[in-house]
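Hi everyone, sorry if this is the wrong subforum. Our group has a chain we'd like a structural model of before ordering constructs, and none of us has done structure prediction before. Sequence below.
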Amino acid sequence: MQAHPGSAEDSGASFNQLFAYPFRIFFLSMTILTVVGIPLWVLEVSGVINLPLAMPALFWHQHEMLFGFLTAAIAGFLLTAVCVWTKTERTHGASLLLLWGVWVLGRLLLAFGGGLPDMLVQGVNLAFLPLVMIDAGWRVWHARQKRQAMILVVLGLLWLMQIGFVTRLNMSFSHGALIMAMALISIIGGRITPAFTAGWLRQHGEDASRVKMHPALDLAALFSMILLLASLVTGWQTTTAIIAVVAATLMLVRLYNWKGWLARSEPLLWILHLSMLWVPVALILLAGSLMANWPSNAWSHAAGTGAVGCLILGVIARVSLGHTGRPLVLPKGMVLAFIAIQLAALVRVLTAFNVIPWHPGIGSSTLLWVFAYSMFLIRYTSVLASPRVDGREG
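Answer:
Right subforum, don't worry. Here is the predicted structure as tokens:
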């Protein structure tokens, strides 16, 4: 089902409302970043424009997708969810404005700070993720919720990859960051995807018990990803490939247990299941790149465009409705956006294998990605900037 945007309930939209809850400003900002940033990168590498970048164009693109786009999504989701989990007061107002300001300044320094000292550019960019971890961490500590600790561990490892990336400009750190991004997906996606699926089945009179969750399997999948990071950083190719296959197998078993096909008629659910499927695909492609000389950018784009890009779009589309008190009914055009983002990932991976020539492949995958996130921007800006429809705070 779909609804039309721009209803009377959105008439109170304001800039101040964006700072009423972390998901509002960060979901909107990360969407603007990717809609503008990816076309700018394509124009930059094509020689059409020449930005005063603080790092080479390819590294700038990788950093902004991993530590600009992704970390904003993390901040928006985690700092919203952790308040609910721990029953603590939300981050909002001036404190949220300051946190967002650090993120924005990092984006501007990387895009236009080519003549500035590296220490300034790196320091600002490296400050954001620790601030997010501190905000979430003290809430988890106060509530004594040990279950959330692994999220902070993964975020800490992601930050270590960022430190290595910005100081050394080495792709091994961006690859490590992608592994940690998939580990985070394994945790968060592994909680919400089966839970939402079971809830939907229950609401529709179906047997929700068919959806299975096994904590031991979830933990094994997570630790396999951490082992994969350690092996990848050390450069043990055969070991890394074996661990990647094991991790992929564990994820596939989890996906089978979640019975995603039972909810194939609900876009807000099938987008989550399909996006999670990109994780084992990326891991198999990683093993192939190490053992069979498959292109390394195939697995990285299956992870980045497929797993990360697709899951984020699915999650923010749902969270933005639920946390503003609106029914979980997609606005018009968002199903097409979900299809477009999945196609963007597929085209990008096929381009890596030269099934599609580079220029048409890059161009079409970029257009599909930009269309998908532009549709979110069009349909959800008023939602994010408007008060909750149920009159509650946030």
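For your construct planning: Residues 171-203 form the longest helix (33 residues). The mean pLDDT is 94.
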